[in-house]
Structures are given as structure tokens and as C-alpha cells.
Design brief:
Helix content is 30%, strand content 26%. The protein has 480 residues and is an alpha+beta fold. The chain has two domains: 21-257, Glutamine Phosphoribosylpyrophosphate, subunit 1, domain 1; 277-461, Rossmann fold.
Length: 480
């Protein structure tokens, strides 16, 4: 049995960030006696940064699965009536940014499937590089698709796999699914946490007094009052039910390939990944950047909020004072009112104001986490100059982004990436900086302190851990 909320008109997007975009965040809970839908709502709220296009919750009462999903932010997608209509002792949730499949009601997660073992719902973070091939195969076997996402392909692959248990079907489907997938899977009597053998996207487990939760990031555990237990291992399947947390073992061995952008930018700084708090890791990135790319300057300023920790680290290692100078409008991410042409030409001013007292007459080190297209770096440099800065030296605490991502990050096509078209010096001239420099890949690995064998460097080197699909295949999936 399934009940789906009617669609509503999606809000318009005002995208003023030249930043990578994540695909989604997932959350799951097994906790008899808890209002699991409400806990899931707040878990998704903590994961809102991972996706702002749609949100959904599925719950189980032991016999059936109920589902509510809608376009918009978590706070827009659900109301009190929705939460009350999701009974049970277990639930999963999903917040989405699309990299495969457009922004449509039918593409909102979690995905649902009926199987001969009972109903099942899946929340998926990641991207399958062979989704078009798998979709065609499933259609040839009589499957009918309701969406255009690889998440539904993955769901139907598991539902249609051989096996007498859900665990067996997950295991039999996993070798066919090439790419990134961290999953929260709901059945009538259990929640499963699944991570692909490369461990591209994060996934962790937390403990409540009444049960357990799984989440893309540990920040969501803290929000709902859960204690961090551990991360789900690459290739691991974990079942959470009345017997507690049970690891069902690891899958086929594979080269681990954690996404570096999770550590640089995506995950919240209060999250813990690979045993370290990201706020501290990003400070170390800034320290390495100061050693590799020093600047003769008077003040260090970070672009809020994602580059703030690295700016603090840069200041500490360089001895140059740190100060906040850019004030961010934190409510600009989504609006129903589109800017006119004049506002579009100065759109960065909708997001940032500069404190002139901090930069006037000074040589400024401006720290950012990434430069993707370069479309907002120049206006920000101009803002700082207009506020009176004598010099602006751009420092980026990640290597240049030169290649697209095929594992769940929206980085634009290669020809749109500024570092693929220009040298570092040319980028500096283009954005109007007095100097520019990036953290090297070696410096990044020194800051992370885990070696260089556990990460995906595809967007920086063009060397991917899995075969990739080209843009024709991606377009075919979106229009299938």
C-alpha cells in the first residue's frame, strides 16, 4: 500500500553560487515508540545543504509503507498533517538535488517498489554511471518507470534481483550497479544502510535511547539527539531491526574512492568523516595553503561559510590577522521572485555585503574553497575592491576543478570549467585578483592526513575510479 502527496507548483530557484552541487542527503530511523516521521523531518532539516529541490519521507508500521514527498525545501515539502499521516516505528527520508533526472514531482525520493517480498522504499545519495544501460535492460524485461532518475533504476534493480531476502537481493544487485550509492532502505520490518564498495558518499550510524538512526552526515545525528556510533564501511550492508544493528558483511573488495569534495566543501563543518571533524580538517587545508602559497598581506578573509575554517587556518599559519569582512544573506538560496536584468548583473550583491572598515586600505587575502566557472569570483573581488581594499590576493583551499563529475556532483561540463580553459595566472587576471593560487593535491592530502589511496580525484585529475558515461548517455536518461 502506498499513498503519495499530490504535486504542487515548485518554487523558483535563484542560484547565486558558482559552487559544486550535491545530489542528496539520506536519513533512516528504527525506533519503536518514537514519532519517527517527525525525527526524520528534523534529520532531513540538518541535511538540507545536500539538496534543496525536493524532500520525502517513507514510514513503516510493520505492514505497509506510507510515503509523502514534494518539491521544495524540507520546511516547504511537509506540514503537520503530512507528519501525522506517516505512522510507524521506522522511516527513511531523502532531500534531493538532481544530477540525473530533472526537477519533477515524480523524481522526488524516496523511491518505492512492490516486490514479492513486500513493499520497499529507498533513499539514494550518489549516481550510477551505467544507469541508461540498466534502465534499458529493465524495460526489456517489462519494468515500467515512473521517473527519470537513476535512483528509480537502482530501486528496481534491487527489487527485481534474485534472492529470498532483501539482503540477498541487495548483494546480487550491487555488482551490476556501477558508481556511487549510499542508501537508506526501508522494508515493513527493518531499515537497511548500504554503501557502495568505493565508499564515494558518506553514511553513518547513530544511537537513540529507543533505537538507531542512519544519516549521510553525523551533523544530522546531533540534531535528533543521537550518539555517533560509526560510519558504514564501503561495501557494507547493515540491517537495523528489533534485534538492533547487525552488519551483514562487506561486498566485493574495491578501490576506496571517497569524494574529496565532501571534505573540502559539501559536508557540514560540524560533521565527522573518516574519524575527523571537518572544521578541523579544513583549517589544516588553510594552513597547508599558507605554506604553499604565502601572500604579503594585512588581513585574511574567508568567503562565508564554507571557506571560513580554511581562512582561519591560513591566518594562523601565516601570522596574518583573520577577520570577517563578507556578510552573507543566508536566505537567498530560494525565492519566488526572479531578479530583473539589472539585479542579475549585480546578483552577487544580493548574497554578500562587505564591511569597509575591515578591508579599507589593506592588502587582503581572500580564501575560497573552489572556483568552478569563475562567474562569481570576479564580482566578489570587485566588491572587496569597491569597499576600499588596496590589493586582493585570491587563495583557494582545493586544487583546480578541471573535469566533470559522474558520481553525484553537478560540476558543469568540462568546457564550462574555468580551470579547464585557463591557466592559474589567466584565471587570476580574469577575476581581477592581484594574485591567485590553489592548494596542490599533495598539500590537500597532507591536510587530510589519510594518504592518497582512499579518495576519488576525478574532478581534479580526470582519473575516475569507475567507467564513466558521456553526456549523450546522461541526456538519454533525463529524457527517457
Amino acid at each position: 500500500m502506498i499513498s503519495v502527496q499530490p504535486s504542487s507548483t515548485p518554487p523558483s530557484l535563484a542560484d547565486f553560487d558558482d559552487k559544486p552541487r550535491e545530489e542528496c542527503g539520506v536519513f533512516g530511523i528504527y525506533a519503536p515508540g518514537e514519532d519517527v516521521a517527525r525525527v526524520t523531518f528534523f534529520g532531513l532539516y540538518a541535511l538540507q545543504h545536500r539538496g534543496q529541490e525536493s524532500a520525502g519521507i517513507a514510514s513503516s508500521d510493520g505492514g505497509s509503507i506510507s510515503l509523502r514527498r514534494n518539491l521544495g525545501l524540507v520546511s516547504q515539502a511537509f506540514d503537520e498533517e503530512d507528519i501525522r499521516s506517516l505512522p510507524g516505528f521506522a522511516a527513511i527520508g531523502h532531500t534531493r538535488y538532481s544530477t540525473a533526472g530533472s526537477t519533477l514531482q515524480c523524481n522526488a525520493g524516496p523511491m518505492y517498489a512492490d516486490t514479492d517480498l513486500g513493499p520497499m522504499a529507498i533513499a539514494h545519495n550518489g549516481n550510477l554511471t551505467n544507469a541508461v544501460q540498466l534502465r534499458k535492460e529493465l524495460i526489456s524485461r517489462g519494468e515500467e518507470f515512473m521517473s527519470t532518475t537513476d535512483s528509480e533504476v537502482l530501486t528496481r534493480m534491487i527489487a527485481a534481483a534474485e534472492g529470498d531476502t532483501i539482503h540477498a537481493r541487495i548483494r546480487n544487485a550491487m555488482p551490476r550497479m556501477i558508481g556511487a550509492f549510499s542508501l537508506a532502505l526501508l522494508t515493513p520490518d527493518a531499515v537497511y544502510a548500504v554503501r557502495d564498495p568505493m565508499g564515494v558518499r558518506p553514511l553513518c550510524i547513530g544511537k537513540l535511547d529507543t533505537g538507531f538512526v542512519v544519516a549521510s552526515e553525523s551533523c544530522a545525528l546531533m540534531t535528533v539527539g543521537a550518539t555517533f556510533v560509526r560510519e558504514v564501511e564501503p561495501g557494507e550492508v547493515v540491517r537495523i531491526d528489533a534485534d538492533g544493528v547487525n552488519s551483514l558483511g562487506l561486498g566485493l573488495p574495491h578501490r576506496h574512492a571517497m569524494c574529496l569534495l565532501e571534505l573540502i566543501y559539501f559536508a557540514r563543518p560540524d560533521s565527522e568523516i573518516m574519524g575527523d571533524r571537518l572544521h578541523m580538517v579544513r583549517q589544516k587545508m588553510g594552513e597547508e595553503l599558507a605554506r604553499e602559497a604565502p601572500a604579503d598581506a594585512d588581513v585574511v578573509v574567508g568567503l562565508p561559510d564554507s571557506a571560513t575554517p580554511a581562512a582561519i587556518g591560513y591566518a594562523r599559519a601565516s601570522g596574518i590577522p583573520y577577520s570577517e569582512a563578507l556578510i552573507k544573506n543566508r536566505y537567498i538560496g530560494r525565492t519566488f521572485i526572479q531578479p530583473n536584468q539589472k539585479m542579475r548583473q549585480t546578483q552577487v550583491k544580493l548574497k554578500f555585503n562587505v564591511l569597509p572598515e575591515v578591508v579599507r586600505g589593506k592588502r587582503v587575502v581572500l580564501v575560497d574553497d573552489t572556483i568552478v566557472r569563475g562567474t562569481t569570483s570576479r564580482p566578489i573581488v570587485d566588491l572587496v575592491r569597491q569597499a576600499g581594499a588596496r590589493e586582493v590576493h585570491m587563495r583557494v583551499h582545493a586544487p583546480p576543478i578541471m573535469w566533470p563529475c559522474y558520481l553525484g556532483v553537478d560540476l558543469a561540463a568540462r568546457e564550462e570549467l574555468i580551470a579547464a580553459r585557463m591557466s592559474v595566472q589567466e584565471i587570476g587576471r580574469y577575476i581581477g585578483a592581484d594574485s591567485i593560487d590553489y592548494l596542490t593535491l599533495d598539500g590537500l592530502f597532507r591536510a587530510i592526513g589519510k594518504g592518497d589511496k582512499r579518495f576519488c580525484t576525478g574532478c581534479m585529475t580526470g582519473h575516475y575510479p569507475v567507467p564513466t558515461f558521456n553526456q549523450v548517455d546522461k541526456m538519454a536518461l533525463e529524457h527517457a
